[in-house]
Design goal:
With about 140 residues, the chain is of the alpha+beta class. The protein is built from 3 helices and 8 strands; from the N terminus they run H-H-E-E-H-E-E-E-E-E-E. The strands form 3 sheets. Strands 2-1-6-5 form a 4-stranded mixed sheet, with helices on one face. A two-stranded antiparallel ribbon has the order 3-4. Strand 3 (about 65-70) and strand 4 form a beta hairpin.
Length: about 140
């Protein structure tokens, strides 16, 4: 992991990516945002994107699947890490332009980052705003 990525993912300085949606638009896929929530604790685990192929795979296999906007490929969550997100329920918003996947973790977590001990983080939302910097907090679940 590069120093810049290390600072972004583990640091406490605020480096919000306000250009993310421009990058998503450049992936040349029609996608929807997908919020992923632990069905038991209610904790938000990740926000990702799904195209038609990813949505179909999710419905057919019962595993949260996304379209990687950075790699431009299908992203079956857990295929390489073993940390899958089993679908409990799929919901859609009123305008049918975003999805909510309520899931159960099968593995250690949903985030691609690791804790200092090397264990996968349960959620990508492991920091909260404390004044002018980010502070790490424990996961709500597990």
């Amino acid at each position: 992991m590069s120093t810049d990525h290390q600072a972004l993912e583990e640091g406490n300085s605020i480096q919000l990516d306000f250009g993310k949606l421009k990058k998503v638009a450049q992936c040349e896929q029609d996608v929807l945002p997908v919020a992923v929530q632990d069905a038991d604790s209610g904790e938000v685990l990740i926000v990702a994107y799904a195209n038609q192929e990813a949505f179909q795979y999710t419905v057919e296999h019962g595993i949260a699947t996304f379209w990687s906007t950075s790699r431009n490929e299908l992203w079956v969550k857990g295929k390489t890490s073993g940390d899958t997100l089993k679908i409990v329920e799929v919901r859609v918003n009123c305008e049918q332009n975003s999805l909510l996947y309520r899931v159960r973790l099968e593995g250690k977590g949903a985030c691609h980052t690791k804790k200092p001990d090397g264990e996968t983080r349960v959620s990508c939302y492991y920091r909260r705003l404390d004044g002018d910097h980010w502070e790490k907090v424990p996961a709500l679940a597990g």
